[in-house]
Design brief:
This protein is mainly α and about 425 residues long. It has helices at about 30-50, 50-55, 60-85, 90-120, 135-150, 155-160, 165-170, 175-190, 195, 200-220, 220-235, 245-270, 275-280, 280-290, 300-310, 310-325, 330-345, 350-365, 375-385, 395-425. The protein has a single domain, classed as Sodium:dicarboxylate symporter (Proton glutamate symport protein), CATH 1.10.3860.
Amino acid sequence: MHFLNNTTVISQETKKTHHSAPPQRKRFYQNLTFQVLVAITLGVGVGYFFPNVGKAMQPVGYTFINMIKMLIAPIIFFTIVIGIGKVSNMKKFGRIGGKALGYFLAVTTLALFIGVLVANVVKPGSGVDKAKFESAQTQQEIEKYKAKSQEKTWVNHLTEIVPPNALGAFAEGNLLQVLFFSILFGVAVSRMGSYAQSLIPVFDKILHVLFKIMAMIMVLAPIGAFGGMAFTIGKYGLGTLIPLGKLMLTVYLTMFLFVFVVLNLICRANGISLWKLLGYIKEEILIVLGTSSSESVLPRMIVKMEKYGCSEQSAGLVIPTGYSFNLDGTSIYLSMSVIFLAQLSQVQLSVAEQLGIIGVLVLTSKGAAGVTGSGFIVLASTLSSFPQIPIEGLGVLLGVDRFMSEARSITNLIGNAVATVVIAKSEGEFKHE
C-alpha cells in the first residue's frame, strides 16, 4: 500500500524526495511520547488536587476519541477492500482469516482460564464489605447496565453481525458490521477482476487522505490524554482504590504476567522480540493509557503494523478483526470479575460451574469493543446466565472499573499487535524494517 511510504502518517513530517536534505532530529519536547507522558501526569495532578476541574475535562477526552472514531469505519472499509481486492487467490485470504480466528479463540480462552485461576488463588473478593459501595446512584448505574445486557442474547449477538443497512453500520460505528460489509465488498472487487481493479487506485488515494486527517488529529493526542486522565481521577478519586486495592493489584499483575510471560512466549516461538515491538508501539500504549480506550489508536495500529513489516492483507484484516475477537485484557478482566463477585457474595462455585462461566465468556467476550464501559455490559450479560451470583455486586466494581479499563485496553492493544505479526509470519509475509 502506497501510504506506507508516507511518513506523515506516523511522524507528521512532510514527505521528502530522495534529493532533499535529511530530516532534522526532533527535540525531546517535540516527541509525541514525551508530550503524552507530560499530559497524563498533569491530568493526574489536576484530577487529584482540583477534582471539580478534572470532572469538567470529560468533554476534552471524549471529543478526542470521537475525532478518531469518525475515521475508524471508513479506514477499515478502504483498508480491507484494497487488501482483498489485490488478492488474486481468495484461498490465501481465507487462510489468513482462518488462522486469525483460530489464534484469537485459543489465546482469549487461555486468558479466561488464567483469570479464573488467579482469582481462585488470590481471592480478591474475600473480606470486602459490599455495603460500603451501595447507594442510590450505584443502583441506578446497575439497572442501566442490566437493561443494556438484556438487549443482547447470543442469537442477537450473532445475527447483528449482518447490518440491516450498510450506511447505518458506518453511521453507528459498529465495527463488526463494517468489517462484514467490507469483506463482502472486497471479495466482490477481487472476483470481478480487471473490470473493478480501477477502483483500487481511487480507494488508495482516499485512504491517503483519511490517514492525513488522522495525522492532523494525532497532534491533539496529548490534550485528549490529559482530559481523559483528569476526568478519571477527578470523578472517581484515588481514594476509591484503597478498599479494592487487592482486586486492582491482582488484575494489573495478572495482565502484566500475561503480556510478559504468555505473549512473550508466543513471540519467542515465532522469532519475534516482544521488547522491540513494545518499543515500536509505545506512543499508542501511552495514548490508550490516557484515553482509556484502545479504539483511540486503531487507525494508527493498522499503519504501524504495516510499517513494522506485516503485509497489508495481514494488518488490514487482523487488526480490525482483533478489536472484536482478540480482547485478551478484557477476557482476563471479565473472568476475574465474575469470580470476584462470587467471592464477594460468598457464593461457592464448583469446578463445573466455573468451567461453564468460561464457556459463556468465550461467547460473550467476543464483540466487546474497546470503548470504555462495554466490558461492564458484557459482564452484566454474563451474570444473567448465573443467577446464583447477585448482579447487585456490580456496584462494587463501578468505582474502579475505569482504572482497570486502562489495563485491559493496553493488554488488548499489545495482544493484537502480537497476533498481527504472528499471522503475517505464518504466511511468510513479514519483512521487518
